[in-house]
Amino acid sequence: MSDASGRKTKIRKVPSQAQKTAEKILDNFAAVCRKLANEADGIIRGVGMAIPGPFDYEHGISRMQGLNKYDAIYGIPLEMEIKVRVPKLKEAKFLFFHDIEASAKIMNRIMKEKGDLLRYYNTSGKIRVYPTAKTEGPQAVEFYIETLNMPTAEVRDSEGNVLTCQVSEHPRGRRISFVDTFKPGEPKEYTYARKEAVPEKMNTRQCYMGAERVRDIVNNYDAETYHLPYYYENKYFMLSYRAQEGIQSLIDKRTGKELLGKGEAPFFTPIYQVTELKDHGYLCREYAERSLMGRNIRGAHAKLYCAKLKDIVVEERGPVFTILRLQYTMPGSIHTEVILKFYEEIPRIDFTMHLGKTISMNEENIFLPLSLNFEDSSLYLRKEKETFRPGIDQLPGTCMEYYMSDDGIAYTSPEGGALIATRDTPLVYMGEMKHHPIVLCDQKEENNQRPIYSWVMNNKWETNFKMDLSGFREYLYSLWLSNETDPEKAMDELKEKTFDPYVMIIE
């Protein structure tokens, strides 16, 4: 809400009373508007209301039914009802927004007040970076410029030092990436400027590349390209892979030990499981098949398919990161790939799964393995503020087939561990990938050593959910190597690392 001078009222939090009667809901809206209006000087110019859908935003009429919220005000014009109750708003203009749209508008307002230009067309300027971590350390910084006229760039810190950066394609122009060390809560400013790309020159004294321009000869001039079809290596990881064979190895170069853990498939390899519908002679097949599963998430005749790696594409290779695109074939999908992003100066791998799921009424599950191998390690999750070992630190007799985790999972061990952020998929599955008798928690140590999987999607529970899983989706994950041995601190570190520094373009 704003007054005649353009001054906006403060943002407050109040109960919605969305399950009350129409009169109480409308009186509550009016009370909030009245309080804010009394704080403003002069005539109120406008009132903005953020409301979830379904809603007629043009006319300010709720269309929500059967959602257990705002059912009582279905079909009621809110602007008229509020103006009757708050005469001071008689001349005000009402605007209704979807709650997500309103959040974006509020965020833009906050960023503008902090100096963000909100227009990113210039090929040179200044940025301000706000770190999110509470500990000092290197963090990846990315921002984009809405121009195609940026072959490469130069980034300098406030002291004039040039930082290594990488310019990549972005849907709206070009993305500029670099890594720097930040102190907790201390923003830093940088300048950026367009640079011409340096023409690539090959050493012509030796034949490192033939007429086909394929760099597949072992050499010292270009020590990386020739081995990228087989493996990738930086100072933290070495990943080995083979088309038609899959992921072979993932080495932690801190210790030289294999990271791939036990399970049905290696890390980065999607899994599809399907229970085909049978005619059981009663009710509908979709319900009957699912009801007979009991506490299992699959039927006794379920089939399991591990995705087959058909090709590896080196999408981008630069001084800040390298991107590998792993292209798979998998039943139940028309498109399956996992994109890996290895940072050169941070022990971090971002991996993203793209999935084009076919339509089916069969009971289906999609998984992504997250099992890693650390000697004498423990696996931790966190719910609310409680960090716990699944299968051990939980009530006896409770479920240990699957769990929800707020941020992801953490491995801790004396030799170092790892943090995995499951940004879009909070549900994880642990244990056997087959129909089996359900064992409830008995707090045994071996329960914590079971294979773990990101449970990406399923259609077992058909109530209140779409029956089929069809459509194109993207799922984001990140992995960091960590030396933290304290589980509480490890989960705190995971939460902090999940959010990259925020960048504003200020000049």
Q: Would you give an account of this structure?
A:
The chain has 3 domains: 2-113, ATPase, nucleotide binding domain (Nucleotidyltransferase, domain 5); 124-199, Immunoglobulin-like (Sandwich), CATH 2.60.40.1180; 230-373 and 420-426 and 454-498. The longest helix has 18 residues, at 22-39. It has 5 helices and 32 strands. Helix 1 (22-39) packs across helix 2. Strand 27 and strand 28 form a beta hairpin. The mean pLDDT is 90. A 9-stranded antiparallel sheet has the order 19-20-21-22-31-28-27-24-25, covered by helices on one side. A 6-stranded antiparallel sheet has the order 18-17-23-30-29-26. 30% of the residues are buried. By secondary structure, it is mostly beta strands.
